[in-house]
Hints:
It is globular, with a radius of gyration of 18 Å. The chain starts with a helix and ends in a 5-residue tail after the last helix. The chain is an all-alpha fold. The chain has one domain (about 5-185). The longest helix has about 35 residues, at about 150-185. It is built from 7 helices and no strands.
Amino acid sequence: MDFNRIINGMIRAARLDKTFYEEVRHDTSYTQDALAVVVLVSFIGALGGLISGLIFGSVGGAILGFIVQLIMGVVGYYLWVYIAHFVGTRFFKGAGEVGEVQRAFGFAYAPQALNILSAIPCAGVLVGIVAWIWSIAAGFIAIRQSLGQDDTNAALTVVVSAIVVFVIVAVVTGIFAAVGIGAAAIGGAFK
C-alpha cells in the first residue's frame, strides 16, 4: 500500500476529478487504498470528536464516542456501498460490480477528513456541514462513474440509497438507545 498514492487519490477525489473515479473503477489495485481512505477519514473524524469530547465532556464518553464513530464510519461505508450498488443496478440502469462501487465510494469519503476540525467551537458544525455536502457531491460522481449512469439516475441512486441507509442506521441506533436506557433503568441510574 503506497501512502503517497492514497493521499494523491484523496486529493483528486476531493477535487471531484471524474477521470480519477473512472480510473479507480477499473483498477482493482485501488481496493485496499479505498478502504484505507475510509479507515483514515473515520479515524480523523473520530479524533476530532474525541478532542471535542475531552474539552467539553467526559473522558469516558469521549473515548466511547471515538470507538463508536470509528467503527460506524467503516460499517456505514460498506452498508452504503452495497445498498447503492443494489439500488443503482436494480432500479436506475446502473451496470457495474460491487467492487467498482466500493473503490470509487471509498475515495468519495476524502472530504470527510475536514472533520478533524469538528473540535473547533462554533466552526466545527459548519465544517461538518461543508464536509458532508462535499462528500455527497463526491459520492454522486463516484456512483455515476462506477455504475455508468447518467446524472439523473446517479442522483436518484444516491438519494434513494442514502434514505435507505439513514433508515437502517436510525432503527439500529434506536434499538441501541432503547437497550442502553433499559440497562440504565435496571441498573438504577434514574434514582
